[in-house]
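Appendix B. One record, verbatim.
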Amino acid sequence: MTPNRSIFVNLAVKDVDKSVVFFTELGFEFDPAFTNDQGACMIVSENIFAMLLAESFFSSFIPGRRIADTSDTTEALLAVFLAERDEVDAMLENAVAAGGTAFRERSEFQGMYGGAFQDLDGHIWEIGHMGQAATGEAPAAAEKES
């Protein structure tokens, strides 16, 4: 049995308020109990969260180390998979409209569809959808008929 686990990805941001506005425009919500001027807890799914931390606060967790300069360094690729292909298109379009930058054009590979954008702080977010070919699952309609 797999234990109930959660993941919190911590990201340094230059402006917490602007980051909250940006990700709210992409459809994410925030947990007010863990959001203040030093950071915001973005809810990705039931057990996955992104902590958007002011650079000064983020630095307190990494003594003696520098925050990655996302203009020429990639510290991580953050991948979020959505239920529907059109949700991928909408989020990628909303990211650019909200001030982000398109990073990689949309493409399809072995039943997976997606693209990527950079947020206001240069973090790369891959947004995708796994089709039935990628997951090996039967179409929903076929499951109902069985």
